[in-house]
Write the structure tokens for this entry.
Amino acid sequence: MSEKNISEQVSGCGEWYSLPGPLSDVVCSTRVRLARNLADFPFPGHFKSDDSVRVQTLIFDAFLKSEKADSYQALAVAGIDSLNAGLLIERGLIQPSTLNSPGGGLVMRINGKKANSGLVCTINDEDHVRISCFCSGLDCDTAFENCLEVDELLQKSLQFAASYDFGYLTANVKDCGSGMKLSARVHLPAMAFLGEIGSFFESVVSKGIVAGPAFSSFVKAGAGIGNFYQLSSNQAGTGSELEQLINFTAILKQTVELERKCRESIIKNRATEITDRIVKGFSVAKFSLLLDLREALMIISDIKLGKALGLLQGVDDSSLTPLIYRVQESHLKTVIKSGNFNFPPDISENTEKQTERLRALIIQDTFENLELIK
């Protein structure tokens, strides 16, 4: 297969992150997670004997013996190879700790043969089961409804640990109550450009939100690579699920409003500086032969900002969010492993340079119709 014929293999079409979402110029994705534990079993950190195997079996059976068994795929983490594990981690579907958990496993909701719904349950990590759903843009309601559907399915055959005073009981006391954690990946380049990220973080932290970079492996001095950040709720015991959803959604809407105001300020007062930055990002995107992950995320950020500012056309947010996942290391290695690419002779035996070359090709393919607005 030639380098040019890669669109189908790396498109990611049909995945949850390829769908359009509300307010996606700022909010890339939202996630709702429900933590649950089986009654009459200790938390995973205190398992004895065969507790982990019994819990895994009970949860797997609850899915696979349900009336919707065909909609779920259950996997023990012991059967996942390192490359597929990397893919799951890059998509946020599991944490590295899940892979090392006794009796660890996951259950994914599937569409046909493709696990593309963004809904996954991890088993025997910090809690017996954590039900998570990802949605594009700002859509906490849909994510919660999907999680609740799975929660109700499990409760038909399982009894979860709960008390009248504390609600659902969890390994982390902060998760007790609803057992729910809300999070969002947001793109805040204008705030960062104007030096307002620090004050923004202070304001949301005062409202019970944990704020930090979305790609922590690249963090230096608290910076968010590509100005992508993660906002998460900190307490599951304050109010009902509905109240928590309303409060978190309100904070995200305020974030969108503030970021958009900063963008307006930049165009009005610092147009030459920001245009120079976007033009440079455009040039790198169009003509680079090799790109590492850090460079790719910076390009995606600049192109996303340029589109929002009206400086670029020919690409939309429903293409930019998937690109964040498509340029990740494990995804590229999987594509290379499954394809037959004719890389230049000088990198034909260099895996690192092959992934950098493929990353550059994916960027160019996505931005094929990208144009500067004059």
